[in-house]
């Protein structure tokens, strides 16, 4: 373990000796015992797994492996709801390159996988029904009973798990590969947003017969770089605003009430006014609630501070009309991060160089 | 098999001994039902073989037709770090290496006058680099777990010790750390104190002796009666571990309160020796915490103090108190220690276990002012004659290479034991301020294809990094530091990355962007585009090809796509294409042949809006789109008729003609062209009836008449 600290943050790196594809926090029951789930891949043994670690800070920060669940293929996306409706078992959803989807139910005290359920992988006329190929993203509802999956094959499916562990799913849309979806996020119990190529964002509503409600095409300006959406986040207090991260350091907010004009937070060429913290892929974005309380009561047009991680190793916070704040600058890519929903000063990051980093913000950072 | 021509192997071209390497057998669990039809074997990354097993085709469709099994050959080198740990070292050394290279590049660009002064400070950068790398290789210092120290624990527990770290530190002492060159012997004393246990795994070392003694001490009541106690003290003294010597001496029975009275003289002698040991003059700037001795920076001060200290020992040796010391074991033990401190060759030879320890002992007590590689090498050879280690240790071989100033031997030892990582990174130490080594390593070799040895090792290391899915991304750092062939290798590396996952492609493109390899980036995008297209992800394929501005492929793809659409596009089908059309964007020329789709959609939309005679604006824009479509060369011929059929509504516009004379003529020409094309063999027939064609003809004729009237 390596420790880096400065006056603002305290950072601990934990080498894993396996590729870390995604990381998430699990809401804890006690204040001293927290868990981190990580999607791992070991190319030398060709195995992929979900590792559950317990994170303790007393006396020294340590990451202790509690349990491992072996996945049938490399994991593309990992989703854990911010809090659990059922206190007994905590659900997480895992999607894979092979096109499968798994629900794992964790014991939040021991950090052990108690039970699991998967979407059946039967074929219809030789074609796989659920997803044909990679499931690129999955998002689990707060209750943990329903999730939405999108794939490169252009399918959008809603999967629900019934009492007794039976898994059912229904197709919302299938573009037959003409559109590939790369990101998804629930906005409300019935609405969700998907991200696709060319900075396309689609808004879906399960109550509508066609599903698709509105879409946004990132066709801003002439000759600017277009790219792929990697991550979407919607804050529960701002359900009409999607925060989107994608290629070329682009982070923007899409307000459903002013659909034609995205609000640029970062990116090369597209927002000349403000400084862009990175120029490479923004792998993940998340609304950052670790701010002065004034923000929550701010007018609903204000974009909440957004945390992003990038291929060039930057973890930063973007604010509308302000200089971005750099929290961490690594020598390698930060592929994934998660803010602890109960303790927003703590952030877990999955680093390209086979390690997990846990960062604690000691106080409000100054702009870069 | 090479050279295996005859069964007895006598006529073979290359001598090949079957006994030398027994063939290793790997079992492949392919899980297929027996009777395999065909087996393909191909190399994958690194040491991995892909074996494809195929079952006969068309034989009962049950089960899968084939399987690919991966076999990993060999188990990696016998270094003392596992593959995963070595990967961690590889990652960690990237920033240090990159920083050093960029500093080098900055220095090259400096004006000459400045460059000379900068060059003289170069070793400082190398030392920083060396310290960063050393930190990766583990910490030799152990952080104590409990605050309370057991008085009987003489040997401090140590952290993880590896040959790799020991070798690195050794090279740092000799090549990078110019500060400590004046006190090189003392640096070696410190080095041995840390790594003595690694010198020999089979034979005993002073470290192993002391470990045994410590186990024994716990149960020993009267330590001074045990000969091992005195032997341990003398051995520790011989290699300069004074803190241990003093600690052991204080365990002597005469210190116990109940015995102090009757053993006063004995205790006095023990204490005197302990004080003398802890006051030994040492030619070094400072001592780390807990180590004993008096430090002297200047040679003259040191020599003065040394003479004085020797004088004290000689005086003590002839003292009358020895006769009063009743305990003969104490007396003999202490006398032995004095002999060691006086530099008695016989004594130090007795109490050291191998030549390295004897060598250190010589530095401490016999030739404390040894300097220069020549003197050190001859001393080392002398020690080896006195005490040899059976089964030479890698560290001692490395020391001999360094003392012999033989760069090739050092590289060979590093390469053989520690592999390409060590050679690549240690080269920076070797060339820090050593002109001869620089000549050897940087000279371009004809037999290596015009590259230097340094570049060769970097290329080899980069190849190893490239062969692993997790480390290929750090290989470019090393490849760009190779002036001759690095860029070529880098291009091959980037080309060869798999295109299955778009995240991997993006990581690959990021490296292209970083090193300004735009043409490679475009090729990667084309490869990715074709891969996705072939796997049915049409949108993704088109996206990559658009990014690569590959009009040729986009046009080819467009033709295939139009085949999927069929002859005409119904409104239902169009919904499905909406997403793709959105992706194509409205910019002209960006989508190649696919531009048609975008315009066709716009035309369809506006014609849909034309409901009655009031929607003039919609009708006008529909005419505009129609004209664009008909003028564009990218509009496929097979859509012409259906376009014309759709526009009958516009031609028969009630109030006034919407199309002027030239526009109508254009449409007439197209219709003519179509009827001519019917005679061509490759014509794609539409399912529009001849009635439809004649209705179009009629509408066009009528419109032309009205347009001529309008113009008049």
TrEMBL record, chain A:
Record InterPro entries: WD40/YVTN_repeat-like_dom_sf, WD40_repeat_dom_sf
Source organism, top-level taxon: Eukaryota
Gene3D superfamilies, alphabetized: YVTN repeat-like/Quinoprotein amine dehydrogenase
The entry's keywords: Nucleus, Repeat, WD repeat
Subcellular location: Nucleus
UniProt KW Repeat keyword: yes
GO cellular component terms given for this protein: nuclear pore outer ring
Keyword Repeat attributed: yes
Protein name: WD40 repeat-containing protein
Source species of the chain: Zostera marina (Eelgrass)
From TrEMBL, chain B:
Localization (cell): Nucleus, Nuclear pore complex
A GO cellular component annotation in the UniProt record: nuclear pore outer ring
Record bears the keyword Electron transport: no
Matching InterPro entries: Nucleoporin_Nup85
One GO process term, biological-process aspect: positive regulation of DNA-templated transcription
One Pfam family recorded for the sequence: Nucleopor_Nup85
Family (UniProt): Belongs to the nucleoporin Nup85 family.
Subunit details: Component of the nuclear pore complex (NPC).
Full protein name: Nuclear pore complex protein Nup85
Protein source organism: Zostera marina
């Amino acid at each position: 373990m390596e420790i880096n600290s400065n006056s603002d943050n305290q950072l601990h790196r934990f080498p894993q000796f396996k590729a870390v594809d995604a990381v998430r926090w699990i809401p804890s029951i006690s204040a001293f015992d927290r868990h981190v789930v990580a999607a791992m891949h070991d190319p030398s043994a060709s195995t992929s797994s979900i590792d559950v670690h317990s994170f303790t800070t007393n006396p020294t920060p340590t990451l202790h492996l509690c349990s491992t669940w072996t996945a049938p293929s490399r994991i593309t996306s990992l989703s854990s709801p911010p809090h659990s409706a059922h206190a007994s078992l905590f659900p997480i959803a895992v999607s894979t390159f092979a096109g499968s989807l798994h629900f794992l139910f964790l014991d939040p005290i021991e950090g052990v996988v108690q039970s699991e359920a998967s979407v059946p992988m039967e074929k219809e006329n030789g074609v796989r029904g659920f997803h044909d190929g990679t499931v690129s993203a999955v998002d689990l509802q707060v209750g943990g009973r329903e999730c939405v999956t999108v794939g490169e094959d252009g399918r959008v499916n809603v999967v629900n798990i019934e009492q007794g562990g039976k898994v059912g799913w229904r197709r919302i849309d299938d573009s037959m590969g003409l559109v590939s979806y790369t990101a998804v996020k629930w906005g409300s119990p019935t609405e969700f947003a998907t991200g696709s190529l060319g900075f396309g964002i689609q808004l879906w509503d399960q109550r509508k017969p066609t599903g698709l409600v509105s879409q946004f095409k990132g066709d801003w300006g002439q000759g600017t770089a277009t790219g792929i959406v990697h991550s979407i986040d919607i804050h529960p207090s701002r359900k009409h605003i999607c925060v989107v991260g994608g290629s070329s350091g682009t982070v923007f907010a899409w307000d459903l009430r002013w659909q034609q004009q995205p609000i640029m937070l970062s990116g090369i060429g597209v927002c000349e006014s403000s400084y862009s913290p990175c120029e490479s892929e923004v792998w993940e974005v998340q609304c950052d609630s670790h701010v002065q309380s004034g923000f929550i009561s701010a007018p609903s047009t204000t974009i909440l501070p957004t945390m992003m991680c990038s291929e060039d190793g930057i973890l930063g916070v973007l604010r509308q009309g302000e200089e971005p704040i750099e929290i961490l600058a690594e020598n390698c890519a930060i592929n994934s991060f998660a803010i602890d929903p109960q303790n927003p000063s703590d952030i877990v990051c999955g680093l390209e160089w086979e390690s997990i980093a846990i960062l604690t913000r000691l106080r409000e950072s100054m702009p870069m | 098999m090479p050279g295996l021509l005859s069964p007895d192997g006598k006529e073979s071209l290359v001598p090949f001994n079957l006994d030398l390497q027994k063939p290793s057998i790997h079992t492949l669990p392919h899980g297929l039902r027996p009777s395999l039809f065909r087996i393909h074997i191909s190399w994958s990354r690194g040491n991995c073989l892909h074996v494809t097993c195929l079952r006969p085709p068309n034989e009962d469709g049950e089960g899968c037709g084939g399987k690919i099994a991966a076999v990993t050959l060999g188990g990696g080198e016998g270094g003392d770090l596992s593959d995963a740990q070595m990967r961690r070292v590889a990652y960690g050394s990237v920033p240090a290496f990159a920083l050093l290279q960029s500093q080098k590049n900055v220095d090259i660009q400096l004006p000459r006058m400045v460059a000379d002064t900068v060059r003289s400070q170069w070793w400082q950068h190398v030392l920083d680099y060396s310290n960063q790398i050393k930190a990766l290789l583990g910490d030799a210092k152990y952080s104590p777990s409990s605050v309370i120290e057991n008085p009987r624990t003489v040997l401090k527990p140590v952290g993880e010790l590896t040959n790799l770290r020991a070798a690195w530190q050794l090279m740092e002492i000799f090549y990078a750390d110019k500060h400590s060159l004046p006190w090189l012997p003392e640096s070696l004393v410190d080095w041995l104190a840390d790594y003595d246990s690694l010198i020999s795994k089979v034979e005993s070392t002073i470290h192993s002796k002391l470990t045994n003694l410590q186990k024994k001490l716990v149960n020993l009541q009267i330590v001074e009666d045990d000969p091992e106690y005195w032997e341990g003290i003398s051995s520790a003294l011989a290699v300069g571990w004074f803190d241990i010597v003093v600690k052991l001496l204080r365990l002597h029975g005469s210190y116990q309160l109940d015995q102090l009275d009757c053993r006063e003289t004995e205790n006095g002698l023990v204490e005197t020796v302990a004080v003398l040991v802890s006051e030994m003059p040492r030619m070094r700037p400072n001592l780390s915490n807990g180590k004993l001795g008096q430090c002297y920076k200047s040679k003259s001060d040191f020599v003065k103090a040394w003479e004085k200290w020797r004088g004290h020992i000689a005086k003590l040796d002839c003292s009358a108190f020895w006769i009063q010391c009743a305990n003969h074991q104490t007396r003999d033990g202490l006398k032995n220690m004095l002999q060691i401190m006086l530099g008695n060759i016989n004594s130090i030879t007795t109490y050291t276990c191998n030549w390295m320890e004897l060598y250190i002992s010589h530095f401490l007590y016999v030739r404390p002012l040894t300097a220069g590689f020549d003197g050190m090498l001859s001393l080392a050879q002398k020690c080896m004659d006195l005490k040899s280690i059976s089964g030479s240790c890698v560290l001692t071989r490395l020391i001999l290479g360094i003392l012999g100033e033989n760069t090739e031997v050092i590289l060979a030892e590093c390469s053989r034991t520690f592999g390409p990582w060590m050679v690549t990174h240690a080269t920076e130490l070797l060339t820090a301020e050593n002109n001869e080594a620089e000549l050897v390593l940087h000279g371009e070799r004809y037999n290596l294809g015009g590259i230097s040895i340094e570049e060769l090792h970097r290329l080899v290391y980069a190849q190893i990094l490239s062969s692993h899915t997790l480390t290929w991304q750090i290989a470019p750092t090393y490849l760009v530091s190779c002036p001759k062939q690095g860029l070529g290798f880098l291009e091959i590396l980037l080309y060869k990355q798999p295109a299955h996952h778009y995240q991997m492609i993006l990581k690959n493109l990021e490296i292209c962007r970083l090193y300004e390899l735009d043409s490679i980036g475009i090729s990667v995008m084309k490869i990715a585009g074709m891969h996705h297209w072939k796997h049915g992800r049409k949108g993704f394929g088109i996206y990559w090809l658009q990014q690569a501005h590959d009009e040729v492929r986009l046009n080819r793809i467009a033709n295939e796509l139009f085949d999927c659409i069929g002859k005409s596009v119904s409104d239902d089908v169009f919904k499905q294409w909406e997403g793709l059309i959105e992706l194509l964007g409205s910019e002209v020329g960006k989508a190649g042949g696919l531009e048609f789709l975008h315009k066709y959609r716009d035309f369809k939309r506006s014609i849909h809006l034309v409901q009655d005679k009031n929607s003039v604006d919609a009708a006008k824009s529909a005419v505009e789109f129609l004209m664009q479509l008909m003028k564009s060369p990218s509009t496929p011929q097979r859509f012409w008729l259906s376009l014309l059929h759709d526009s009958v509504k516009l031609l028969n516009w009630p109030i006034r003609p919407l199309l002027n004379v030239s526009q109508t003529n254009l449409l007439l020409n197209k219709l003519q062209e179509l009827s001519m094309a019917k005679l061509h063999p490759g014509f794609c027939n539409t399912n529009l009836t001849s009635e439809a064609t004649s209705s179009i003809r009629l509408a066009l004729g009528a419109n032309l008449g009205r347009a001529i009237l309008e113009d008049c």
